[in-house]
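User: Fold this; tokens only.

Assistant: Input:
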Amino acid sequence: MIQLITFTKKEILEQFRNSKILLLIIIFSIFGIMSPAIAKLTPWMMDLLSDQLTESGMIIEKIDVNSLTAWTQFFKNIQMALIIFIIMFSGIFTTEYQKGTLVILISKGLKRWKVIISKFFIVLTLWTLSFLLSFLITFAYSEYFWDNSIMNNLAFANFCFYLFGVWVISIIVLSSTFLKNNSSVILFVGLGFIVSYLLNLIPMLKEYVPTYLMNSGELLLGTVKTSSYTISIIITSLLIIFNIILSILTFNKKSL
């Protein structure tokens, strides 16, 4: 347990030293602000373009925005934020392979499973705090400008996408146990996403894959029941556990 805590502390300090925590705060704050800002500025921007569009034969009707507009934008923005997050942490293992630091630590008695658990815990914590930061900023601005009470299943919809992000993190950890560079890890994550996305296009299978959770923004309208996401949540959770267990088994056999 002491080894696990010590290694985790070392990982936390490393994230502070390389400024990734600061970058996450800036990036996710920007995306959190962007969602209500774009919604608020949309009518103004359309007014500026209305004359040009009218000359082109397009008639622009008055646009009403509310918290739904802001949260719809949020679910678009948070996908881009997740992509940036993936790129930032694709080297969570591979950087150490290149530096040879893991060889030294493991040769001194650090258990390999503790490396996996610690790395996963650090990235999971950073994803949780980053997502929560972006969510709270959007929530605060949307509440100030409009009214969040008109939203349906707001917390649940956000939880679904958050869980999707955790699944992606588990793939990063798994792929990092047998791949040696960042680009390969990113490609593997992309491959996992593509497979899940293609299965999501099949009506009979869409509720059984993690990428179905990306559609949770539909819950905000109240036209979709939360129960329709239950199977996907269960399967995604099981896949996360499976990926971490497989990561430990693979890393135990890996030659560093």
